[in-house]
Amino acid sequence: MTTPKEVKLFGAAVSGFCTMVHHALRLKGVAYDYVEVDLKNKTEEFLKTNPVHKKVPVLVVDGYPIPESLIILLYVDETWKEQPLMPQDPYLRYKIRFWADFIYQKMMPVSYAIIQSEGEVQKKAIEEFLCHFKTLEDGIKKDIHLQGPFVHGEKPGILDVILGTCGAGLKHFEQILPGVKLLDKELVPQLCSTMDAYAELDIVKDTAEMLSQYLHVGQQDN
């Protein structure tokens, strides 16, 4: 397979799903162009890249669009072989995909329910989220058990990209929802430690700095 020549990411600075793709590309050392999408006024150029879901992120590689963040993460790892984000062992690869899907299908929807609700409904959503969080921690310990500061061991991989980005979102939830505690270091010490280590990576800080200019523009426009 020839190395792609033109890589473009359509995204939005407010989207954690897009941030994951930024991180994966930067961990791989892939040079790419970035297009900030106005979610309230999507251009025809963008809509042509994802006519089905019409959502960010979309990665366009040599003219071919790849939508949906988890699919993009797997595509990036398979396309650029340097700095692998997935292990070589087929069983470990399967387990990582299983727990990545668990985060997307179980944890993310409940996290949205937390921020969109209040009172007893919110309380039940928090309890459900923390239950899933504990299941994830126990499952990773049992199924993956790699030594190092990250889920994938000494270097971050796809699960770290997903969890690390989600960790930043959970911290934001805690800031805007008084009394809500989601990053419970007693309940999920390993995952909290992993997310803290991920937050210290240069690619995470550099991405945040780059995206901040778009956030400031959006605030000024509002």
Concise synopsis of the structure shown:
With 222 residues, the protein is an alpha+beta fold. It contains 8 helices and 4 strands. The protein is 59% helix and 8% strand.
User: What topology, given as strand order, has the largest sheet?
Assistant: 2-1-3-4
Stretches with pLDDT under 50, minimum 5 residues: 218-222
Mean pLDDT: 95
Q: Helix amount, in percent?
A: 55-70%
Question: What does it look like?
Answer:
- It is a single chain.
- The chain is α+β, with helices and mostly antiparallel strands and 222 residues long.
- 59% of the residues lie in helices and 8% in strands.
- The protein has eight helices and four strands, in the order E-H-E-H-E-E-H-H-H-H-H-H.
- The protein has a four-stranded mixed sheet, covered by helices on one side.
- The radius of gyration is 18 Å and the shape is globular.
